[in-house]
Amino acid sequence: MDGAGVGIAFWALAFVTLGAAGGVMVSRNLLHAVLLLIVTFIGVAGFFVLLSAEFIAMAQIVIYVGAIAVLMLFAIVLTPRTIRDNSETAMVGPAILLGIALGTVFLFVIYDTEWAVVASDPALSAEDLGKALLSTWVLPFEIASVLLTAALVGAIMLVRTSEEEAEDDA
Amino acid sequence: MSEIVQSEPFVMNIGPQHPSTHGVFRVKATVDGERIIDAEMVIGYLHRSMEKLAEERTYTQNIPFTDRTDYLSSMSNNLGYCLAVEKLADIEVPERGQAIRVIMAELQRVASHCMGAGAFANDTGAWQTPIMWFMREREKILDIFEMTSGARLTCNYMRIGGVAFDLPESFEEEVRAFIPAMRQTIDDGEGLLSGNEIFIARARNVAVVPHEMAINASLSGPMLRGSGVAWDIRKADPYCGYEQYDFEIPIGYQGDAYDRFIIRIEEMRQSLKIVEQALDGLPGGPHSTEVPLALRPPAGEAYARIESPRGELGYYLVSDEGPSPYRFHIRPPSLINLTVLREMTVGGSIADAIVALGSIDIVVGEIDR
Amino acid sequence: MGPLVTDHWYDLRDLSNISREILEGIDKVAPSEVAYIVAPVLGFVAFFLIFVLPSQLIVGVYGERRIIGRMQARRGPNRVGPFGLLQPIADAIKLLQKEALTPKTADRAIMWAAPIFFVAPAVLLFATIPFGPRMIFADIPVALIYFIAISALPVLAAFMAGWGSNNKYSLYGAMRVVAMSVSYEVPLVLSLLAVVVFSSTMSLQGIVLFQADVNLWLVFMMPLAFLIYFISVSAELNRTPTDIAEAESEIVAGYLTEYSGMKWGLFYGMDIGYALAASAFAATVFLGGWSMWGLEEWVPPWMIFIAKTHLFYFVFIWTRGTLPRLRIDQLMAFAWKFLLPLAVFNLFLVSLERLLWVENDIGDGIVFAFAAGNLVASAAAAYLWARLLGYRPERIPTKPRLVREAGGYVPVEGQTGGGE
Predict the structure, then answer these.
(1) Any idea of the CA torsion for B315, B320, B324, B325, to the nearest 10 degrees?
(2) For chain B, which residues make up each domain, given as ranges?
(3) Minimal C-alpha gap between A35 and chain B (Å)
(4) Is C190 within the bounds of a domain?
(5) Exposed, middle or buried, A74 (CB in 10 Å: 0-12/13-18/19+)?
(6) Which residue of B has its CA nearest to A155?
(7) What class, spelled out in words, does domain A1-88 have in CATH?
(8) In terms of residue numbers, what domain contains C340?
(9) Range B10-368: architecture per CATH
(10) Please, which chains are in contact with B (at least 3 CB pairs closer than 8 A)?
(11) Predicted complex: ipTM over 0.90
(12) pLDDT tens per residue across span B221-275
């Protein structure tokens, strides 16, 4: 992909994504943090589009924004108000140190890598993904399905009230 | 697991400002998720101390009060009060007066059920379509009332000893033109709703009142008949010459909201039948007996009851030979019918509570008086 | 498409000629970046402001109220302008000058952000919908999943609106919206998956071209998928009979309770806009899009397409005026127990037919036989599955018993079961 639009899009997306990610860290209200995280997810989906991986971008939105963000929202809504604060903890000092350390490591890695431009556009279409998932990677795919079904059944079991369990035993 | 996910019940107010409480009426519902654990009703928002005010006024002056208790069926209220006073003072009503009273009461029943069944359909969510059709016909009844008594809603038409004015000349042709149109609208409304799966799913097995509970709680009207108890004051304790008309009373199967709805629809049909019979056999003669202006009934007490659209409407009067009653008490059917609200709604969801409330067909004016 | 559609800018049958002339003109006089920026603006103006917004106002606001009024034995709006056509403008002016109250204890940032998230899907969806053979703004190859991805956004917006209002009724509305959307997304995706399997492409233009090629609209090919799509999308859009999230008679406008003024106007308008987008999507995928068995060479294809969209939207209006609404647990039971197995059955059937068609290299005429078979099989499957789940309409009495004498309790003879 090339052209002026790509440049504009890249910088706009970078600004939005990083800004939202910063907001997630900084905001005091946990609900605001989750909503800014959703904006981050959408920004990352935009990056996928810039890399010509449209299917993965859409999958990112469907899965992260549509499902995982909703899950996080529910988790926040169901917690009592006292522990819903995103305030300062005693871990601020070590966290900042760790952040600086990781940032230094990343900067060194970025500086030392050879960033070659890929000549051709590898355009991974959904068809290629489908074929790969059903031939080379079929075993992890099926195991993931079983895992999701187990999670679904487990979630239903967890929220059964005791009356319903007694109903089942009777 | 429920220790980690804390869910505690919270109290939610349904009303008094709510599009569906049929008046100013509040239900304090303790809700756990969507399930109601406890429902407590708070009434008194519309109390106008009618019973006390009636002790200052003469018996004839109290008739407009009765209009305003159950403002959706004012003719029936007037009728009940006049019957009580006539019982107290031992006054005979001429036959023409009785027939006119029956016609007005039955037309009022149709109008009130238009509103009741329509508002119930509105509560289940049918976006005002059935209620608009019923309102169109109710407007015609209100026009007939205006033609006869001068007012659409609070008619003040019955008098002690008969009715206030005789029927106007174009009354009969208007009513006869109205009856087939009403029958068509009843068929339309029934066709739209009674067989509709969504309506059945919303109203069936919702707010069930078993027949023992209905009898023990002194319910009356469509609520009692919905549970399968065949009791209608017009048949059991006839007044105003009802024994000479040929009609049937509908009763339901299991006492849920759906049964009450179909009973109201059928009662509208039966009422139209009675109106036709009364019009066919309308006797001549005076429309009321002469009653002195300041009526002083002999000392004593009287209780008269009628079958209002909501149930058994009773008037209890105690006289001490003065021009005003010593005690004037109304037995409102809506209040007595509401006493089973808790049993009907506990265990269901809020949507079911709204449907239950709609199926009782309350009018807050007569609850609070 | 055919030889009759030309490249002249005045040929109204293909309005993309106009935009292409404009962009080429700009390219000649200005550097290429300007054309880059003008192109999306032109696209927005063309697709949203010219096609969608008038449709939304005239059909969505004015048409809906008039049609529902007619169904209810009354006229709709007929005072403002000729035949009341300026009613939406009057509504917009009224909403603009109203005070948008925000409660003191509500979360201002979230309440402010929620309408923005709600407006996004309507505008974004129309970018990928083909109005004609060359009139499509962004022909992305994964447009179907794009639709599913975008339909996750209004759910979040509704939840944000309900939560931020700090009001018990709004919270009810928000929870109901999320529960319902999550339940109905699964049959929606499965029914669209059947479409993808049969036409072997996810791009909307590709699906329309496929339907034009085999001369068969996908609604006849898989009627069950169409029906499931209709019900699921009406649940996602919160339209009656599935509008429990804003059920006016129960929870007083649900998640919208605390919104007034133009914020509410945005929600209301974009509710219609999103419904139009879903109708346009259905018209593309199921009803053949801009193709009409050869008619599109004379009649402008975008007119055909808009007619189909409004036809679909009319069915939305029709069901809204007629049907009562279901309870939340009934709705979710309906989605999981009834729609999901039927969607899986439909997918299975369609995949089988596609496999037979492609593997055995039969000609294109076989799709008509498939369509006939599918119609019968779908009707039978839906009916049998309903009966299996306990649907017994003949057991429910719709008339009361009639008695002549007053007495005591009259017991019921026989069994009266059924219902839900």
Answers:
(1) -20
(2) 10-368
(3) 22
(4) yes
(5) middle
(6) B1
(7) mainly alpha
(8) 16-393
(9) Orthogonal Bundle (1.10)
(10) A, C
(11) no
(12) 898 888 888 888 888 888 888 888 888 888 888 888 888 999 999 999 999 999 9
